[in-house]
User: What shape does this take?
Amino acid sequence: MENILRPLTVVGGAVLLTLALGWATDRLLHKADERSPGTPLWDLLRRGRIPYQLLLCAALLRGSYDQANLLERHQVGVGRILTLVLIGSAAWLVIRIAAAIVETSYSRYARAHRDAARVRRVRTQVELIMRVVSAVVIVVAIASMLLTFPAMRAAGASLLASAGILGIVAGVAAQSTLSNLFAGLQIAFGDIVRIGDTVVLDGEWGTVEEITLTFLTVRTWDERRITMPVSYFTSKPFENWSRGTPQMTGTVTWHVDHGAPIEAMRGKLRDILRECPAWDGRAYGLQVTDTTPNTIQVRALVTAKDADDIWTVRVTVREQMITWLSADHPYALPRVNTSDAASAPRHATSPVNGPVPYRR
Assistant: This one.
């Protein structure tokens, strides 16, 4: 009977103590979150209660397993499994705590600064730093798990001796991966591109949605996702419409007839912009920028506070101007002239040679 009650007491006591400590810790964090509603730290720490309870349970069972006399034939194997669970849950908990601290720091920074570009830069850096921290913790945890096996400890000396050769081989084999890794760090701390920036890549207009250490995802205006290696942004030119101040100047171009009412078009442009909420009121203008035998090119300049609004202003001006010209000035639209050419003017006549020919 004692051989049964002792293991049950040890295991049951460890589980009950784990649940009690987990519940008490969760209540303390909940009260701390209610007293400090301005910071999300305590609520984020509550997300780590599962790895926290798993760590407590594994630690308690690992410490009392020898006295439980449970599965004596497999005592070494069970002890090693508990050690592996202990290391894994500890790494999981460290990642959750680091994520809570980093996210809290970013939230405070975002509330204290109104500069959207700076906030996006910090957000990009925070996400990449969190990925690096997670990768380091996972690698350390896996290495610690492997070292719990005697065979791995015995092979440690030979692994270290061949580390130089393996490092060279791995570096050559993973050259593109390493270049992307360093490019990701350069993007994070070099402020080349940030999450939320509006960019143009090979003629595709979109918004940066995700940045990792190896690839970057751009969401286009038609909801497509373009995934590119981060090394692209450090080796090739691209347009970043969010770089610097978010204010932008856009152009709208029309091809109209030579007889188009330019002054009336300037007045109509002013009226359209006054009724367009996306226009920021900074500037506008309309000029004739080119001419062809059949048409003239008219260009309007408009301004907006960011890339999204400049797109709205441009399409609104283009559509309403064409509608107005079609309704009130149809003669101003491009057309193909099929009438006879005008006769040359007759300036004077010569009594000897007859009419003087018209010269250009």
